[in-house]
Amino acid sequence: MNSKLRLLMFKTLSRNDTGETHSHQSGISIPKDAAKAEVFPSLGIETLNPRVTIDFYDEDGDRWSFEYIYYNDKFHGKDSKRAHNEFRLTRVIDFLRKVEAHSGDKIWFGLDESGMRRIGLVKNYSEEQITEISKLNKPAKYTMPRDDEYESMVAEDIPILDPEIDVEPTVIILNKDWMKVEFN
To answer: What average pLDDT is seen over the chain?
Structure first.
């Protein structure tokens, strides 16, 4: 499982994503630009609310099966005021609990050179928290720059399974919560 990642999608988790708001909304919203990335399968408007189960493997090699859904009733006659045109990744709560995700952390979805989907989490630790964690001999696995520092991000800041990266990543900001990283 030590294959290099060739594509990464990062999403800064909201309180709603992690269940901290206790809302009934399900799953992580995937913006259309992220949905077009190879990490997620293509779902069209031909069928009402198409869905597919997709598997991701975490850094421990555990498999996680999620439902990827395109809520597209906008194209199937639903009243436009209540119609949907959005992608969602559902059934993620068990993974988020395993990695102890909180709002502000960054979940990443990757595709490695063999075509396998990967998943992980970058904790949003402050410098003070990193110092405290280090004292407990539980260092943070990775740290990410703040949202306003994405443009200057370097390869060492990106969690990849093979640290011997030999190319500069291309970082594309999709919106305030999502970014795409390609290794060309």
So the answer is: 76
